[in-house]
Write a structure and sequence with these properties.
The chain is α+β, with helices and mostly antiparallel strands. It is 17% helix and 36% strand. Helix 1 packs across helix 4 and helix 2 crosses helix 7.
Length: 401
């Protein structure tokens, strides 16, 4: 048997031995060097069949090994692979439109990922590496103010195992402006810098003039607008120009918040500290709607009924607070919640969609505990407490339960 090794920095400690009808091969790298990964081995077996197989690298990346059968003392093996300096770090950057760098400072790895020109990171990038004890660790990098550079560090990683970066980038370049020119006999030019669009329409014939030309567009708030164009009569025809300063396609028209839970309307007295009525946005929304529609008398009526329930027997008990929600649909309350929770400077329309109680019961049919959504408490004690919670709210005892 003979072996041809086409790899630099391999030691003379590499061994070749007979192993259960085949040959075992171990190729070791010199000190200060590491294999970049698995190697390959090519040979022709005793039947004349050519093979090209893998020599597996060990965890420390210092040795390639494998066992190969249907070979004999006349077999010629050819081994190929790549090595690197042990201080060279393998970087696997899976973040598009970016460049990753790892520098070694003693036992610390410092990371830096830079987004390409006209790109920024969509969220904090991640780095995955092997700890000194052999565990896979995923760390989160920190973004700079303009979200174009992410940095971080890790102590005592296994440098020879490499580092993998993951994340997403988004374009910050100027969006393309689409213009549809519906004026016959004219040519159109335009420019757009992401904020301001300038449109110019040139008439082709001197005898023709523009009559009140207009341009229709969508502004940064998502509203459709129409602007009049300025007309200038020139020697070779009229020119109409419009400068639109409120075009910005990066702003959303609508924000939709989807909740897998129904509206939480009632306190849970079976282990969760949620017993103050005024802490529920659904309750506040219902009260707000009552006041908007001149139905404040419902609040006083519910208050008197809750007081009466304090003397009722368990069989007579009912949840009087349900009457607060009764005049409104789920959608009306959801819309009011969205209005109340939307900051004053938010330009986009905000919509909140909650799961229905019926949908919840269908999704988890074996879990009947929905009283904080439905108000149907399983014990008389729960019903008494929800009535008492409304009394405390109505009387202004906000700290009482």
């Amino acid at each position: 048997m003979s072996v041809i090794i086409n790899i630099d920095h391999v030691t003379d400690q590499s061994t070749f031995y007979e192993s259960y009808g085949g040959w075992g091969i171990m190729v070791r790298v010199e000190s200060g060097w590491l294999f970049k990964g698995d190697g390959t081995i090519g040979y022709e077996d005793v039947n004349g069949v050519h093979h090209n197989e893998t020599l597996s690298v060990n965890g420390a990346k210092t040795m390639l090994s494998g066992t190969f059968y249907d070979t004999d003392a006349n077999t010629v093996f050819t081994v190929n692979g790549e090595v690197k300096d042990e201080n060279e770090v393998d970087i696997y950057n899976d973040i598009p439109n970016s460049t990753a760098k790892v520098t070694k400072d003693g036992n610390t790895a410092n990371f830096e990922v830079t987004a390409d020109t006209d790109y920024k990171f969509a969220s904090d990038p991640k780095v995955t590496y092997t700890s000194e004890y052999g565990y896979q660790i995923q760390g989160t990098l920190t973004l700079n103010a303009d979200e174009t550079v992410a940095t971080g560090s890790a102590d005592y990683p296994q440098f020879n195992q490499g580092f993998t970066f993951s994340g997403e980038t988004v374009s910050t370049g100027t969006p393309e402006l689409t213009v549809n020119n519906g004026i016959a006999g004219t040519t159109e030019t335009h420019s757009y810098d992401g904020e301001t669009a300038t449109l110019t329409v040139q008439g082709s014939y001197p005898r023709y003039r523009f009559i009140a030309p207009k341009v229709t567009y969508t502004d940064k708030l998502g509203a459709e607008k129409t602007a009049e164009m300025t007309v200038e009569v020139q020697q070779y025809g009229s020119v109409a120009t419009a400068v639109l300063t409120d075009v910005d396609r990066l702003h959303p028209k609508k924000i939709v918040v989807v909740s897998s839970s129904p509206q939480v309307r009632y306190p849970d007295y079976y282990g969760i500290d949620m017993s103050r009525m005024g802490e529920f946005c659904a309750f506040r929304a219902a009260v707000s709607l009552l006041k908007q529609r001149g139905m404040e008398h419902v609040l006083e009526q519910v208050y008197r009924e809750c007081l009466a329930m304090e003397k009722a027997t368990d069989d007579e008990l009912r949840n009087c607070v349900k009457a607060i929600y009764a005049p409104f649909t789920d959608e009306e309350i959801s819309d009011e919640i969205a209005r109340m929770l939307t900051p004053a400077d938010t330009q986009a329309e905000v919509c909140i969609i909650y799961q229905s109680i019926e949908g919840l019961r269908k999704a988890v049919p074996d879990c009947p505990g929905d009283w904080y959504f439905s108000g149907d408490y399983p014990t008389p004690g729960g019903t008494r407490l929800v009535n008492r919670a409304f009394v405390n709210y109505y009387e202004g005892n906000v700290d009482k339960r």
